[in-house]
Amino acid sequence: MKSKENLVFLGMMGSGKSSIGLLIAKKLKVNFIDVDKEIEKELGISIKKIFETKGENYFRKIEEKITLRKLKSILQ
Q: Are 8 and 67 in contact (CB under 8 A)?
């Protein structure tokens, strides 16, 4: 079985996770997934709007769900 390794960046909003993650993914020649973009695509609204209308707790639950789904799909 082929081993798969992933990097997951966690941190405060605006800390540069997406920017640094994209640069590292390019350097390592691996795929990059921006979970915020995945959330916006799936829900059809911006992260800002999610926070404004549904709150942070809702966002964090969706963020966790989509992150775990993406990791599971990569590992299969």
A: yes
- Dihedral over alpha carbons 7, 76, 73, 71 (to 10 degrees): -30
Which structural domain range is residue 65 located in?
33-75
Tell me the C-alpha distance between 8 and 21, whole Å: 8
Residue 57 lies in a domain: yes
What single-letter amino acid sits at 2?
Answer: K
Please count the structural domains in the chain. 1
* pLDDT of amino acid 74: 81
Tokens of 59: 């966002």
Tell me if 46 is assigned to some domain.
yes
Instruction: Tell me the whole-structure pTM to 2 decimals.
Output: 0.81
